[in-house]
C-alpha cells in the first residue's frame, strides 16, 4: 500500500489572518465585533459592501 503524504505550507492560514486584519482595520470594528470577526469576517464585509449594490 502506498503512503499518502500531505504537505501544508500555511498559505491559507496566512491569507485568512491577513483578511481578518483587513476587516478589523477597514471597517473599524469594536472589540466585541472584533471577536466575532474571527469567524464571521465574510459577513461583516458583505454587510458593509452590500450598500453599494442596492438600487
Features:
55 residues, mainly alpha, 2 helices, elongated
Quick summary:
The protein is an all-alpha fold and 55 residues long. The protein is 65% helix and 0% strand.
What does the radius of gyration come to? Answer: 16 Å
Q: What portion of residues is helical?
A: 55-70%
Name the average pLDDT: 79
General shape: elongated
Q: Report the major sheet.
A: none
Secondary structural class: mainly alpha
Secondary-structure element sequence? HH
Number of strands: 0
CA(first)-CA(last) distance:
59 Å
Strand content: under 5%
Instruction: Identify low-pLDDT runs.
Output: none
Number of H- or I-type helical stretches: 2
Layout of helices and strands, plus pairs?
Elements: H1 11-27, H2 31-49
Helix pairs in contact: 1-2
Could you explain the architecture of this structure?
It is elongated and about 55 Å long. Helix 1 crosses helix 2. The chain has helices at residues 11-27, 31-49. It is mainly α. Helices cover 65% and strands 0% of the residues. The mean pLDDT is 79.
Amino acid at each position: 500500500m502506498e503512503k499518502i503524504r500531505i504537505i501544508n505550507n500555511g498559505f491559507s492560514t496566512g491569507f485568512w489572518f491577513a483578511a481578518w486584519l483587513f476587516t478589523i482595520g477597514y471597517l473599524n470594528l469594536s472589540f466585541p465585533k472584533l471577536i466575532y470577526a474571527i469567524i464571521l469576517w465574510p459577513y461583516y464585509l458583505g454587510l458593509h459592501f452590500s450598500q453599494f449594490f442596492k438600487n
